[in-house]
Amino acid sequence: TKNDILLLSYLSAEPGANDPIESAVRFAAESDLEILKSRPNKHEVPGYKVTGFVPFNPNTKMSNATVVINETNEVFRVAKGAPQVIIKLVGGNDDAVHAVNTLAGRGLRALGIARTIPGDLETYELVGMITLLDPPRPDSAETIRRCNGYGVEVKMITGDQLIIAKEVAHRLGMSRVILDAGHLVDPDKSDEEITQHCERADGFAQVIPEHKYRVVELLQKRGLLVGMTGDGVNDAPALKKANVGIAVHGCTDAARSAADIVLLAPGLSTIVDGITTSRAIFQRMR
């Protein structure tokens, strides 16, 4: 049921993490589930005890919790993560793949939830999907349009699935030439070919942290000046490598120390102010 999914996703959400997805999951569960509304201690789930937790990792793309049911002392594990990862974990499920693609076509992200079967801590079964709406920031489309007007090409790099990336690109007024990040590390292609892909593409989907660095590196080898925005610890190497690293509002300390510019206001529109200001300075120097 819906309640099962919410409870299991709550148990596998990192408590106190400043992560928008984890916060959304916890908020949804706390708003809907009676046992979470009426509990005396906000740090416990009545009837359950989380004994182990592996936080979300950008490379595995999932988090994992080990839970004990107090009454029976039965132990089970819950995995929550990117739908393709969870579907692979449970050994494939065509209905789930179809559901994820249908949601993605509407611009909705899905999170898969799976739990282990009784008596076996290695075999997972699919419980269901949580849908998340993750719209672009309201100023993003305008920022991209203005950057293009100044001759700055914008590329989108995202961990989301290809189909969602294309939908978001379309909403932002970018063209839909989005490549799977696998293209960046394809052993059958020469560096020259990969660099051409990199130049022509409007973005990359299903990336892991290393890919971001690779994009910056390839474009720089072409003699292009590259600016890169990011907010996480895993963006830090790419921010440092770029000619101009831009850490966005609310970023981690690692991103902030690796960047050249730190934005203090939410959104990306300040980047355009940076372009116009720097061009004014450059003109005066000339």
Automatic annotation (TrEMBL):
Protein's GO biological process: monoatomic cation transport
GO cellular component terms given for this protein: membrane
Subcellular location(s): the record lists: Membrane
Q: Identify the main location.
A: membrane
* InterPro entries in the cross-refs: ATPase_P-typ_cyto_dom_N, HAD-like_sf, HAD_sf, P_typ_ATPase
Transmembrane helix keyword on record: yes
The record's listing under NCBIfam families reads:
ATPase_P-type
Q: Which PANTHER family match?
A: CALCIUM-TRANSPORTING ATPASE
The protein's name: H+ ATPase
Q: Which organism is it from?
A: Rhizophagus irregularis
